[in-house]
Protein 1
Amino acid sequence: MTLAVVLLAACGDGGGDPASVSVDPDRGSARGGDEVRIEAPDLGGATLVRFGEIAADFTVDGGAIVAVTPRAAAGIVDVEIETPEGTVFLDDAFEFEPLDLGWELADGALPPDDSRSRDAEALDADSDGDLDVLVVVRDAPPRLYVNDGAGAFTLAPPEAVPLEAVDALGLAVGDVDGDGDMDAYLPVYGGQDRLLLGDGAGAFVDATAAWLPADAAFDHDAALHDLDADGDLDVVVAVQAPPEGGVRQDRLYVNVGGRFEDATAAALPAADDATVSVAIADLDGDGDPDLAACNDETDSVAIRLLHNDGRGYFSDAPAGSMPVQATACRRIAIGDLDGDRDLDLIAVGTGQDRAYVNDGMGRFLDRTVLLLPVDGTRGIGVAIRDLDLDGHPDLAIAVFDGQDRLYLGGADGRVRDETVRLPEDASPSIDVVAADFDGDGNDDLLVTTETGEPDRLLRAVLR
């Protein structure tokens, strides 16, 4: 379809003459990559083309422009063309259409394994421009899946991840030492946590002795973030159970340039909670990263909010900031569910998942009944991502006792159950990672399982 519009070419002196412009085609996939021909007088000297706020690659063909649409959220956008004479605006000139995706099991894409996989993270371990996967395994060394660029993975040799068998449950990745390569923090259940520093060439160095304080608690999860605004990554560790003879307390380690120092006593309030998941984001809108902790005991607070003072010191959020949740929480994730530009919470666990909507100042309201489908399964992992590029976050949920679930979000924050887009599989899932592993512009799903069944790669395909 061709869109014919009348525009005003706003020149440097504010003048300009109306001109007829054609945009052909006037719609395309939100995945991007479509060629669009824009014709109008005096566009030959164009220096910049934008679709909405995103710049596009383009060439000049005589007096016309041939632009390649960028990847963008679905919706109708303006097209902006900068020329030496001024800027040309085309109001509502192009529509990005959401993706109609399904997911198929990619047989043979992952190495065979019978290990008890737990959490996984996507990272470019070998700096080749595609996403590899690091998986922690119960009572075994971590596994590094190396991507060939097309979404087929091989298992890295043992020397690439030089750790003995550890009972690691969670995983956090980030550039801890500031060298531009991805590193990995492994919270260990009943032993010393581990820190692996990436070399950027597909291998890691065990830096535990040099970097980490000694500990023996039963750690379940960790999250990396610059908590004290000094430009490097600190870590929060979720503690499910105390060490023998010790106290159950989540921990905060501050990065001091070459090692982590335990700042728990000064930076975190005491709490005897069975924390199994932590997430970090600015929840109260003051510009500082706050903490949300998820606890899996019914006799403790299911979700605990901690506010940052801007210097990396945390205090409990004011009373009433979080509704009381009757069921235990297993995993917590953060995203803008309702499109109001503040961050909301999703909590999964045994029974009904919960949706908590932020009022913009860090006070959360339980909107589960309005936003989420009814479910009674045991959710263990959750990924929030705009999978279909319609501008609204979607949810992929790893289910331990049944079919994994897929919820696609809408403009009002409600999600619709689109699990039918996933292959049928009742394997006991633990974690789910959403990322474009094969480089086709669509987000695939990698699902781990703890019971010795193989991890699974679900490849996104256009329906």
Protein 2
Amino acid sequence: MSSPDESAAAPPPPPDPAGAARAGRGVHHDDDPVDGAVVVLPTHEDELARAAAPVAGGTAGRRVRTSRRPLRAALAGASALGLVVLAAAVLLREHCRETLWASPGLYVHACYSDVPTLYADGHLDQVVPYLERVESRDFLDLPFGLGWLLWGLGRLVGADGATGPRDVFDASVVLGAVALVVAVAAVVHLSGRRPYDAVVLAGSPVVLFCALVGVQLVPAALAVAGLWASARGRAVVAGLLLGLAALVAPLAGLCAGAALLLVRWRRRRDDAAARGARPEPSAAAGPGDDLDGEEASRPPVLDPELRTAATAALVWFLGGLPVLLDNFGVWLDAVTARLVAGPGYGSAWMLSGLLGAPLAQGTTTAASLALRVAGVAAVVLLVLRAPRPPRVPVVALLLMVTALVTAPALPPQAAVLVLPLAVLALPHWRLLLVWGAVEAAAATGTWLYLYSSSVPDRGLAPWAYAVLVLLRLGALLVLAGRAADVSLRPERDVVRSPRSEPSLGVDDPALPLARRAVADPDPDPDPDPDPDPDPDERLDPTPPAHAPPAHAAGAAPARTVR
């Protein structure tokens, strides 16, 4: 047994990294907004954020005191930044607002927007879309939600006459600002320990150069909000949001919903294998059958992901039901217009045309569908073969990139659908900002190429536009490659918590009840616990007879030495 002098002379225990993190960065326990996980400060882990930190006051120091409500702080900062960037995007389009998008000025000033063009070309100030048409003009073939949205905005602001398209554009900007804040809020709550990654979404060049080309901010926000609702266990609300997203931009709702189903399928299969039982042929399961034994003993209900998918499908069907009842041909054209099409701007299929050998519409359609099916099959195989179930945003990003790079057309505004998924799946600031810069360059190149079509010997040459298209496709494939890499090598995924259960992938913040599994296992609020008690103390819990009382002031802890 040791003497009191020996105990006092014993070397102090080694420092605890977790304790240092609690003292330096702040820790949040089970009743805090991030469920006990230490909030990741960007300047501590991201090289680009650290390099840019001097502009905003420097890197967060060891004694920095983080906000007691980090989610609110991240939401407020990112939302403010996003609104500033969106306001700058409006200023870049002021020339077009003044000239009412007159050609070729809208290409020279890179301020083109689909909103006034579609509103004017569809005569939405005179007819109800899909149900009526102006004589000698075809019915609208846009996605149902997009047509209804533009028509509703026109009715809301009373858009009429020559300035009607501008009024609708202004209304779409206000709606886009609301959608951007919603998207930021969803990303903040779905990022787990990394709420400040929403800053990349808000300050991305995609918002500045592509967000106001169309209304894609709306379906992008609806899709990521649907994932947020699903993570909170609101299956029906999630389905409603994903269905609305699919009405405006089918890929937005379809990719998010398919990702939920694929990850759920993989997790149920792993759970059945872990229990030594075959998967049940029925889709009935408890809402937390693979997470909590008590919940699994409840009466079976329809699987929440299936409820989400069924609700989304019903919402999408109801959105087009008036058109289906009125004219099946118009309904079918609106559904298939983006699938059966010739080579469009920005797509891989346009490259041959830029080089002097254009593809026929039938060839483009058949090849696009074949490659898309093959790409989706590859994503499904990846989800099933990965060492751990991939995170939902990672799978959604893979599906989105697969659909876009194989699509007959890849317009600039499609990048807005990728942005929130990329931030959630790959929160590496340098990678995302480089990709956003490529998207901005490709968007500007598209307008300059169209300018060359209007004014010969001006604008961007076809070969230069082909280079930009290749760069853009390459950047998207890099995102897909990184997403596949973190799926096959989960230890490289910076979002996953090392304390989570690896067998079921419950460390995905986008899954229902996932955060319960990554909460800090030590809810003791003491900021300086004993980090590493002496090994002999653990082996011999009986204190020595001469040990001073634990409450005695200044008493040295007694240690057992053999």
